[in-house]
Specification:
Helix 7 runs parallel beside helix 9 and helix 8 packs antiparallel against helix 9. Strand 1 and strand 2 form a beta hairpin. The protein folds into 2 domains: 224 residues, no CATH class; 94 residues, no CATH class. By secondary structure, the protein is an alpha+beta fold. 26% of the residues are buried. Strands 1, 2, 3, 4, 5, 6 and 7 form a 7-stranded antiparallel β-sheet that branches.
Length: 360
């Protein structure tokens, strides 16, 4: 690393921080003006509002990282090109490939920061942010699914006809233990209720049927005797799952996917796509920064403003490809890994083609 490298790297990082702060600040101000009436209507305290925006700010900053990093690189490079500094650098014997070193280091630093924030920091902040939005900005959630089937252990299954998430009560419940494709234990109950004191489920009006050595034992609990049981299931499984994936760190995502697979759930692929995206986006930062250097390295007669506007256009196209790729992955029309990586693959090809056009 030479003085020139440190100079360019410092310009990239400071410009990136400035662009992020300015852009996200504008977004948060607009967001506040739209939600202020809801805050007043729901009597939200100032402390809660401040805490909400302290979690919303880094969320938007991380979400927009590929775009803000790209804009920062375009701005810095276009400024160097407008002052003929890039021409002087190349004329001094430094190759264009060598010139890319500080850009590469800067993009890797930003990408690494983005990965850590997306994987661990933002999900923890989102636990408060999304809970705040569901409590104060959304209508109350009512669990509406019927005929709920869950695998709660290797050999245990539960069926619930319907569930009231406001009271944490399930109706018409069946618990079954099946070993080697044979039913060995079955409990039916009219209700199952979550006991907040013991953190266990309580069965009401139950009947138990056990099959031991070809002998059937039936026990009737009646209306007065309840069963407290510890199940691999909690009221959280019946709460609002809107943007639930955003509240899980990478470690929690992997654990949740393993749990859902053991239950035979059908929403596993949605959470797997979230993991693919968290690994894909940091590479998108590096690719966009590489393209940003190429499109702004030439001195343009139209000025720096034109090159920045071109940068915004390319960033918009990348966002469009990103949302299309996610939609294709969630629809199952293509292998989700390939679908999620389509924007990076396409823009890598575009970057290589553009690189061949740069005079060196």
């Amino acid at each position: 690393m030479k003085k020139l490298d440190w100079y360019i790297l410092r310009q990239i990082l400071t410009t990136f921080v400035f662009v992020v702060f300015l852009l996200v600040l504008i977004i948060c101000v607009i967001d506040f003006t739209e939600k202020n009436d809801d805050f007043i209507q729901n009597n939200v305290s100032r402390a809660q509002i401040v805490k909400y925006y302290l979690t919303l700010f880094p969320y938007f900053a991380t979400l927009l990282t590929p775009i803000t990093a790209f804009i920062a690189v375009v701005f810095v490079t276009a400024k160097l090109a407008s002052k003929t500094e890039i021409v002087a650098i190349l004329a001094s014997g430094i190759s264009f490939r060598r010139l890319l070193l500080p850009y590469f280091i800067g993009s890797v630093l930003i990408a690494a920061m983005s990965f850590v924030f997306m994987g661990y920091v933002i999900p923890d902040a989102n636990k408060f942010r999304i809970g705040f939005e569901l409590n104060y900005l959304k209508k109350p959630f009512f669990y509406s699914d019927r005929n709920i089937h869950l695998k709660i252990a290797d050999n245990d299954y539960i069926y619930i006809d319907r569930y009231n998430n406001q009271r944490d009560i399930g109706y018409t419940v069946t618990l079954e233990k099946i070993i080697d494709e044979e039913l060995v234990d079955k409990i039916t109950a009219k209700r199952i209720h979550w006991d907040t004191a013991s953190n266990k489920w309580s069965l009401k009006n139950w009947q138990r049927r056990q099959i031991l050595d070809n002998e059937e034992i039936i026990t009737d609990g009646g209306a007065t005797k309840d069963i407290d049981t510890l199940l691999n299931m909690s009221p959280a499984d019946f709460q609002n799952k809107e943007r639930h994936h955003e509240t899980l760190t990478l470690t929690e995502l992997n654990d949740y996917i393993a749990l859902q697979k053991s239950r035979g759930a059908d929403d596993v692929q949605f959470y797997e796509i979230e993991i693919y995206i968290r690994y894909m986006q940091p590479f998108g930062v590096i690719i966009l920064c590489f393209i940003g250097v190429i499109v702004s390295a030439r001195k343009s007669r139209r000025g720096t403003g034109f090159q920045i506007a071109l940068g915004f256009l390319i960033a918009f196209i990348f966002i469009l490809f990103f949302f299309l790729a996610r939609a294709v992955a969630e629809a199952g029309s293509m292998d989700p890994v390939i679908a999620v990586w389509i924007p990076n693959i396409i823009f890598t090809i575009v970057g290589v083609l553009l690189y061949n056009t740069v005079p060196r």
